[in-house]
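Support reply, case 0932

Customer input (verbatim):
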Amino acid sequence: MTEQNKIVQKLISTLHRISSEEDSVRKHINTTRYQTDLLQDLDNWNQICCSLDTTGDTVLSIEEYLIRIQAWFLPNNSPASDHGVSRNFSFKIK
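Our regenerated output:
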């Protein structure tokens, strides 16, 4: 495995950990015990939900970017190959 692959794999691993933490927080606040208290202050509830959504969306975007970068610039045996990412992209600009 090349040094670049190791770096990308470490980044993807970190992103998976962040995603796992986001999921854990989401499950925690959605239990009846905590959700009832949090819904008393809708501004706070909305901020928490928006923050979790932003975190999740950002993780997915960065992960997809890294996978595509691997597919474009690293050999075919890179971890991106395992995700079914092909180098044969075709873009149509209208």
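We compared this against your earlier run and they match. Two observations from our side: The mean pLDDT is 82. The first helix runs from residue 3 to 29. Please reopen the case if you see a mismatch on your end.
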